[in-house]
Amino acid sequence: MATETANDSSESTDAPVAIEGESDLDDLVETGEVVLADFYADWCGPCKALEPVVEKIAETTGATVAKIDVDTNQQLASSYGVRGVPTLVLFADGEQVEQVVGAQPEPQLRELIEGYTE
């Protein structure tokens, strides 16, 4: 999986950014206009199926994509009300604007993001 960590000095948002805690996500949301946070688990089949879609979204849209492992970030997942994985949370201009649960088809995610990037 081609992920960066939130602490990388690279400005590129072409690959999903691995989030290591609440402050990482907060920093990313504050600096990114549109951020799609993917709350996932390594053991989750639908999460694995969604992974190539999320990576393509990161490469081909203006949104920054964050990957958050719910097993290592249980407190963060809980604070966003994540009860099932995958859960996708969309932020625009520093505010949470959407939340969807379950694997979503690429066109639906793209449409969701484009509603906030135009």
From TrEMBL:
Alphabetized GO MF terms: protein-disulfide reductase activity
Chain residue ranges for the region called Disordered: 1-21
Biased composition (Polar residues): 1-13
One GO cellular component term: cytoplasm
Entry keyword set: Disulfide bond, Electron transport, Redox-active center, Transport
UniProt cross-references to PROSITE patterns, sorted A to Z: THIOREDOXIN_1, THIOREDOXIN_2
Xref: Pfam families: Thioredoxin
Thioredoxin domain mapped to chain residues: 4-118
Record-linked InterPro entries: Thioredoxin (IPR005746), Thioredoxin-like_sf (IPR036249), Thioredoxin_CS (IPR017937), Thioredoxin_domain (IPR013766)
Domain of life: Archaea
PANTHER family found in the cross-reference section: GEO12009P1
Name of the protein in question: Thioredoxin
Species assigned in the record: Halosimplex litoreum
Gene that specifies this protein: trxA
